[in-house]
Structure formats: C-alpha cells, structure tokens
What we know:
Helix content is 38%, strand content 15%. With 359 residues, it is of the alpha/beta class. It has 2 domains: 15-31 and 267-357, Aspartate Aminotransferase, domain 1 (Alpha-Beta Complex), CATH 3.90.1150; 43-263, Aspartate Aminotransferase, domain 2. The protein has a 7-stranded mixed sheet with strand order 2-8-7-6-5-3-4. It has a 4-stranded antiparallel sheet with strand order 9-10-13-12, with helices on one face. Helix 4 (88-99) runs parallel beside helix 5 (115-122) and helix 6 (139-145) runs parallel beside helix 7. It binds 4'-deoxy-4'-aminopyridoxal-5'-phosphate. The site of 4'-deoxy-4'-aminopyridoxal-5'-phosphate has 13 residues, from helix 4.
Amino acid sequence: PGVRALNPYLPGKPVEELAREQGLDASTIVKLASNENPLGAAPSSCEAVAGMMGELARYPDSSLYNLRDSLSRKLAVEPDQITFGNGSNDVLVLLAQCYLKEGCSAVFSEYAFVVYPIAVQAAGAESIVVPSKHWGHDLEAMAQAIRSDTRMVFLANPNNPTGTSFSEAELRIFLEKVPEEVIVVLDEAYFEYAVDSGHPDGILLLKEYPNLVLTRTFSKAYGLAGGRVGYSVSSVEISSVLNRLRQPFNVNNLVEAAAVAVLEDEDYLNRSRQVNQDGMAQIEAGFKSMNIDYIPSTGNFITFNAGMNGVDCYQRLLKLGVIVRPVANYGMPDHLRVSIGLEEENQRFLDALSTVKHS
Ligand code: PMP
C-alpha cells in the first residue's frame, strides 16, 4: 500500500523532447532546471572515463577501494565510515529502508527535498512534515515534532528548493535535543557551494553525535550528475548496516574513476564555485532590477516568486527556449527554481523572464 500511494519523483523531460514539443532547435535551449554544473564535467573526469573503457566488460570493484581511499583522506574520516550510492538519492532511500518500517515515523520540513517523503513512504513509515519558517527549516519545531516512534529526521543544508541554510550553532542546539536512537540525516548535496564561513561542516560533528549521518554527492559542484555517485559518512556501525542492504555494484567503474580524478582537481572545484558565485550575483541583480521577490540561496540555484502561476511562467519561458523548474509539487505554486548557469545562460534566462513579465 505504501508503494501504491507514492507520488513518483518527476524529473525534468530531456531537452530534445522539450525542444521537439516547442518546435525549437535543441542546441539553442538553455537548461537551468536540475542544479547541474554548467561547466560540464571536469576534463580530468572525462580523461579518466576514457581510460577506463577497457574495463567496461568487468564488474566494478564493489568496495570502491580507490574512491574510498581518496575520499577518506580528503575528508579525514575512516574508509569504513563511507557508504557509496548510485547518487546520494540511493543512499537516502537505503537509509530509509534500513532504519524505517511500518509503525515508525520520520520528521522533515515543509519545502524540503521531495525524495524524503518518497523514501519514508516506500519503507512503510509515516512522514511528519513540520511547517517551514521563512522558507527554511524550523529546527526548534522539528525537535518538538519528534515522537516516541520517530526513528529518523531529514535535514537539508542547504535546502532544495528554497536554498536556505542553518548555522552550526543552530544545528548543535537541534542535535542536543534529538534522542540518540533517532538517526539525523544531514543532506549536504550542495555543501561545496555554501561558502559562508558560518555554514556547518557535518563531518566535524560526527564524533560528537554518533546518530548523525551526512549525505553528499558528486552530482553538483563535482560535475558528475549523469555518472551517479553519492555517499554517506557516518559511524562505522551505521555504515556497516547500510552496506548489508546496498547493491554490491551500485556505482560503476567509469564514474568511480571520474570521481577519483575530480577529487584531486582543486582547480575545477574552485572554478565551479566561482562561476556559481558570479552567476548568483548576476541573477540576484537581475531580480532586483525587475522587482522580483526571491529567496536568498546558498546553493547553485535560486527560487523566486514568478508573480503569476509558476507553471504558466515556466511554460512561457519554455517557449522562449529557457527551461527552469516549477516547484508546485513542493507546495510553492507561485514560485520557480532556476539553476545558476554560465553568464550567457543566466542572461538568456533574465531576458526571457523580462519578456514574459512584460507580455
Ligand atoms: N539531496 C538534495 C537536497 C538534492 O537536491 C539532490 C538532487 N536533486 C539530491 C539529494 C540527490 O542528488 P544525487 O542523487 O544526484 O546525488
């Protein structure tokens, strides 16, 4: 019954299909819909993938020794604390499968990432959705919402789609209130973009809070969304539970090589961050000049009030060859989310939005 009642995750349609529907040339379309890295994959990743072609007939290394080794050194954690997934989505679902069942509940915020309710419901558990505060997580209310049957809390920092984040002090106050048998999943998919010095680094809190699990991904700042690799960092005890249910070959050998290469590629990460910072400033300035209300974001996307029905605005932008993401499924019918692109892509978006506004 839990599975039957699911509202499936609705990813955006492929650019080619949208272009065909709109009668547009796909090569002229600007896609700012899925929070992807506008730089494209790092050349270091592409080279690594090319070098692995001879291994396509071989099974991947189930333990992902190479990536585990590089990542554990980079994050200064034990290799056994890491659990890999086919994107961090996979790890989120795995966490729910391992720790939730009928009769349990999980707490998350209104406007939080849409995969949490799906994962909770698929595990047969009940979702407790806590009203948001200023589009962000109301951590105090979330702590109060924890019941005796609650086994998991999902926090997203930065949050998608609102781009809000909370500080280390706020997180610590929250963690102190959570009973130790409740697992706190801190989803840090956009961590690398949150450059503010007050933004918490979940890794530094793991020793103090053994019930904390971080999830991160190579899909965003590391530019490997199509490769599908994400991971959690947790206590060894929790990762040993997750690894019991993890599909043994859930990350392929091509993307493992790509991820190892980009982890060493500081230049790519710095460029990703810089392009994002510049693009965010460009889009915010554009919003201000058009008097558009937006939610300040610490991620690689920004959500704004379309001033009309969000899906209508999305359709009109689409006709002009710009794809953004409606967020009506998050309960935000008047808003749209736009991913930060390259300078000329951001300009195309702002010009198209201005045309829509004035038509
Ligand atoms: N968490 C959040 C908050 C996200 O926005 C996303 C991507 N949309 C993910 C997790 C999952 O990303 P991936 O599976 O590509 O790692």
